User: Fold these one by one.
Assistant:
Number 1:
Amino acid sequence: MLNEIPAQIHLDAPIAATARRKICVVTGTRADYGLLYWLMKGVAEDPDLQLQIVATGMHLSPEFGLTYTQIENDGFILNAKVEMLLSSDSPVSIAKSIGVGVIGFADVLNLLKPDIMVVLGDRFEIFAAVQAAMVSRIPVAHIHGGETTEGVIDEAMRHAITKMSQLHFTAAEPYRKRVIQLGESPERVFNTGAIGLDNLTQLTLINRPGLEEALNIKLDHSLIILCTYHPETLKHDDSGNAMRGLFKALDGLKDAQVIFTKGNADTDGRKNNQLIDDYASRYPRRVASFTNLGQVKYLSLMSEADIVIGNSSSGIIEAPAVGTPTVNIGLRQQGRLKAQSIIDCDESSESITYAIKKALSPEFQELVDRRNSLFGQGGASEQIKRVLRTTTLEGILIKRFNDLEIP
């Protein structure tokens, strides 16, 4: 993690001349890598494509587990690393990190010279990479555009990334229409479904005994809760207040076993993670926290859990697909499509407690479609790869605003 401003980049693999189309995938967190894995694997195995990988952000931070090593352990070759995280999570430091990232990506893209850069989501690391690609005249393929997350600054960055991208892969038809509403050409916007659902069709999940061994904990309580809570970065008040409301609600569940997965490097993210560790240390028998579980353990735990609590997008997309109810706290995911199995609540302990009781009630369980997905049934990675391989790049940088009729 950087303590000063100059950008640092590291080229990890030689740059080879090739006639194949070069697809550069940028990943900044363990979460987006877990979603991109099958696309990266498909591109690497395609004889007409050459995979390039650039790791940045939390992947390079010891504090967040140096998760770029997981990419390498999975058999991928990193072409470059872009150091951009400063040693603080204040708004000023996040803004400076974006600037450092733009500088680093400018150098990396000049060296790698990809034909298309692939990014996912709305985080500030991706925002930095796409700015550099736009100025470098490199086409961008954006996954998960058109969605809304009204409680975070990522909302604006997602739509900005859409406007700087040439190809768009959305998770649902309403999102495809929204990208077109933003002025993008319909022939360049593809509804592929959520790419994260590919993990549910491709991975073999771990059963409860295997999870206990992998996590080194006993899942022996009557109620198992998987909890992931991220700061709402548009708020000016103390994000710790929301965490304390969650803890108070969990205190009322004496027979519950709670497994926390820590948040990302957002504004106040480190503060929240410290609060989680402090809470877990008070209840070592029934509360555990993990910096990084990886996709297999995380989805396996989600499948075993009685309920998912927090404000992670996985509670909106993956949890309904595996049949686990979600208590969605606050505004971070406000605006997304939501299945019947999701209960929204505010950040007060009373509201969270009420939502938990509702989610666990027999009446609610009867109403929930136990395998309900609003985001497709998997297969997005193959669809995206096909477009990356076959789409014409001639004239792709020229974007004409697609005007809609206004009544």
Number 2:
Amino acid sequence: MVSIPLFQVDAFTNQPFSGNPAGVVLLKEPMPDTWMLGIAREMNLSETAFLLPEGDAFRLRWFTPAVEVTLCGHATLASAHILWEQNVLPPGKSAQFETLSGRLTAERCPDGWIALDIPARSTDPAAPPEGMLPALGIDRPVFVGRYKEDYLVELESEDQVRRLDPDFARLKSVPTRGVVVTARARMPGYDFVSRFFAPAVGVNEDPVTGSAHCALAPYWSGKFQKPSLHAYQASPRGGELRVHILGERVRLEGQAVTVFTASLQV
């Protein structure tokens, strides 16, 4: 029997039991997709990350309890945090990840936050698929657009975003992977807020969604006409991010804290 290290990390927060929890598994050899999906189901988190050394980098894959996904910001942040915390990488060395979204880089900021370099995602105006807005409980959106596999919906106020109570069974039948709903922030110190819903991939509401901010960052940067913004994801757990537009890339900054360590018996 072989023991494989397993960690649970709360990402985009510096307080346990807030932010977005992610599983992180440190592999020494490739494992079958069905096994990784089984671990993700066992963890029952929005995403579990699997890291395997590959040349000068790490092969990084992300699984929800239902499917593999092409990009996950919070589990990438959690993975980098574990590599440094467990001394897999020295403190001053950046973490390089080979993923389905290309090579991603994580590095430590001078203030202890972790910065991810991730491709930006542009949002184009789009008609909402039938049933999406009623499932969300939205009557008059300010804007509806699409980026990659998901939709972005802007509302008039932060209060509207916070009050949303989606019909997840109905939303699951809508032909989209997920939808992020956003508005200008009324909280001091923040520029915009959001919530992210993806019942189609087994995640009714994601606590903090790094990949969605790859679209939210350029969207709000254009509206505010500034390259750097402070964001808050207003899920019940809550989490904060700093985002910076760097051409066709987004620099996502967040914090992370390890909640528990364990071993998988294989």
